[in-house]
Amino acid sequence: MSKNLTSRAEDYSKWYNELVVKADLAENSAVRGCMVIKPYGYAIWEKMQAELDRMFKETGHQNAYFPLFVPKSLFEAEEKNAEGFAKECAVVTHYRLQNDPDNEGKLRVDPEAKLEEELVVRPTSEAIIWNTYKGWIQSYRDLPILINQWANVVRWEMRTRLFLRTAEFLWQEGHTAHATKKEALVEAELMNNVYADFAENFMAIPVIKGVKTESERFAGALETYCIEALMQDGKALQAGTSHFLGQNFAKAFDVKFTNNEGKLDYVWATSWGVSTRLMGALIMTHSDDKGLVLPPNLAPSQVVIVPIYKTNEQLEIITEKANSIIADLKVKGVSCKFDSRTTHRPGAKFAQHELQGVPLRIAIGPKDLENGTIELARRDTLTKEIVNMPDLISKIDSLLKTIQEELFTKALNFRDAHITEVDDFETFKKVLVTKTGFISAHWDGTTETELKIKELTKATIRCIPSDAKNEEGKCVFTGDSSSRRVLFAKAY
Amino acid sequence: MSKNLTSRAEDYSKWYNELVVKADLAENSAVRGCMVIKPYGYAIWEKMQAELDRMFKETGHQNAYFPLFVPKSLFEAEEKNAEGFAKECAVVTHYRLQNDPDNEGKLRVDPEAKLEEELVVRPTSEAIIWNTYKGWIQSYRDLPILINQWANVVRWEMRTRLFLRTAEFLWQEGHTAHATKKEALVEAELMNNVYADFAENFMAIPVIKGVKTESERFAGALETYCIEALMQDGKALQAGTSHFLGQNFAKAFDVKFTNNEGKLDYVWATSWGVSTRLMGALIMTHSDDKGLVLPPNLAPSQVVIVPIYKTNEQLEIITEKANSIIADLKVKGVSCKFDSRTTHRPGAKFAQHELQGVPLRIAIGPKDLENGTIELARRDTLTKEIVNMPDLISKIDSLLKTIQEELFTKALNFRDAHITEVDDFETFKKVLVTKTGFISAHWDGTTETELKIKELTKATIRCIPSDAKNEEGKCVFTGDSSSRRVLFAKAY
Questions:
Q1: CATH: 3.40.120.10, 2.60.120.330, 3.30.930.10, 3.40.50.150. Which one for A12-286?
Q2: Can you count the helices (H) and strands (E) in chain A?
Q3: Segment A90-107, tens digit of pLDDT
Q4: Considering the entire predicted model, what is its pTM?
Q5: Smallest Cα–Cα separation from A130: which of A87, A94, A91, A78?
Q6: Residue B227: strand pairing partners
Q7: ipTM tops the 0.90 cut
Q8: How far does the CA of residue A27 sit from the closest CA of chain B (Å)?
Q9: Which residues of B touch A345 (CB under 8 A)?
Q10: Superfamily of chain region B301-398
Q11: Which residues of A touch B64 (CB under 8 A)?
Q12: Min CA distance, B273 vs chain A (Å)?
């Protein structure tokens, strides 16, 4: 199977699309732009969900669920947000189908079942949630509200790609309400830090923390914190965002509270989210021409055992050994699968597990049992070693930690090697084509310049890094003065 | 707070509605028929999800995710299913809004962004899933497919009630594909047994297993297995269903496979689901006039500690003790919350935890610390006892098990006391009004009789119980011969 995968060098985009399908992660569906997330892909997403959910709860958040639909009148209440999403929203206009008199056996929309008010399928839930919060908040005692929702959302994108940009996607959206501006700002930054921690320490994806420029902000936000990752083709990918919404939604939905001085004020808001897009980031950060490479934290099975046998008697002895290994690994918290399928030969199994990125593979044959050794293969480095049976469990345990760390280091080195400081526009354009990656350059701070650069190069400002030093300089495009560098890149 | 709750005797329906809102489980939203599931309610749902998910995986199922939308042409492919859901489905017809020229600041549907084919918001996913399975199944080697999906679905119900019947609800839907009829039947029955096990042993809700009559079956099913519970007002509630779909969907979507004899055949199917409706069943099975009563398995916090103090010094000592209790309980796997809010008095806290059904409540005051005793209050029986400090942890641990068991037994006794064998129609009508509950009666097996009885009494056949004995008798309505009793009831 894996030999059919297009190489990254040949066609990166094709490599990605093929990998997603061949590794059984997802596929396109009969609905334009909507994907089917297959069991193997969904199992990885579930691991992300579990860890994020744990982190959210640890930071004091609770889950809840709000309606899929947003009545048009609520949708349009916060102007900027409405403007931002109006062009790409699915709209429910009717609530019934009926037999089509002109087409036997077919159905049509029942013209008499037209909704009085159209319903927008949520592209994001600020509107419906802030309309709800209005009923929950009277006094500072009701604050803060720290809620997260796991949900599907719909944005009618015209050009879609599996995981990276789909009409429907799965995500979590946090929506918090606070008594003070400061508290909301702290929350927005805290959640961006949670995302960075998750990306780096769980997904092994190095990210740069920063804030968006005005033109790249979430529609309706006053500040958008973000984490930006770099893919192997040198394009950036926004992996998560956390928004300080100010009092915009509170004003749009008239959500006031009595503060501890007895005065009425509008509530301060944040929202933050990551989505199944992270699956795309995962794939494009670690995988290779042989297929998926999974950090052990995200692998549905961290180890797979493939039996090599000719007789049923041999299989029986191998099975016994495999079960004992699985039990020992379970104690260590390591998941291990025994691939005992009789419908596939060992070679085909090896290829499949390589394609699907199982971090460690064990092959056990009669000879291994005789010698008291086992062959252990690492997916990330494609290396093999012979391990003495008694050392196996501790070897696997430590190797999984090593793999997790080394994948991060490898991605970090790649990312750091692809940040180029540039001070003139000719070099800027050249680096974008030859070296790709992030360009660290001075910018005059105007949206006009930003858009002009985008028009000329397709590169956008990915973020103003949080750790950017004050440094006097001149805008790479206009030559106007600037006090710190920002990061440009072409992006997904 | 609790004194404001309408009593069950006064108005059962009002009691239910008030309880759902006052206990902070859910509330109505701005979208007709759609609810907001609040954090406390959602935390209970998460506990159900976690346990069901574990049971599904233990029986070999994997999770996946399929699109929210079903193109009209797929929706109508399986005739009976289409007919069953056409009258209550939300339909997306457009994919964009634009500024309304007649109404400044308002949006309207962009008439130029009309979809070529309407999209139905899934009321259930057989159509989109079987259209997908077509691409996954060629040979018997690809079978069985055992997939579950956690998702939201929409059915445009005209009369809605929180949790029991809402336009959008959350559920899981299993969709499996098999090589033989027998295997599919075994699967459908297995999953009904999983539901029964879950309802009884986790939710403490006794259920009757059986199959539906033809007129009560899922649209498109050949057999619908179900579990039926009895609520405290004597009405039945269908708590879960598992459908044997035969080859209906395989035929509608042309899903054939080569069997192990090399012959082409249509694939056999099942589907099965439970939903947030279970929250309604939970509430109506165990709760009382003081509020929610939660089985310990489903309680977000199984124990709550309320400090009784006058000075900060007292609070400090109590807090120390509380933290030590929480740590000790955690070791036992018991969740315990310390309600240290300074904004509420102990009395108000007691009332809230009673209303929200926390199984055990501990009050700690300075006197208790002096005496080395603690007051432990049971929510279900509303009884209190004084426990010696050293016995507290083991006492709580065993008491939670006792509560779980006793809630089940209590509900079982109530249910069994409300199954009445009836042999004539006058008694049938009378029992429905006076005693309520299930009526076990002979039925002639015709849909005509079933519908006539429904018309006259509003009672439907809830199920033909799996354990019904062969017993010669006469139909309670027509007097025609019958060979076993079925269960009638008014139902939610």
A1: 3.30.930.10
A2: 14, 27
A3: 999 999 999 999 999 899
A4: 0.97
A5: A78
A6: B209, B240
A7: yes
A8: 9
A9: none
A10: Anticodon-binding domain (3.40.50.800)
A11: 36-39, 42
A12: 18
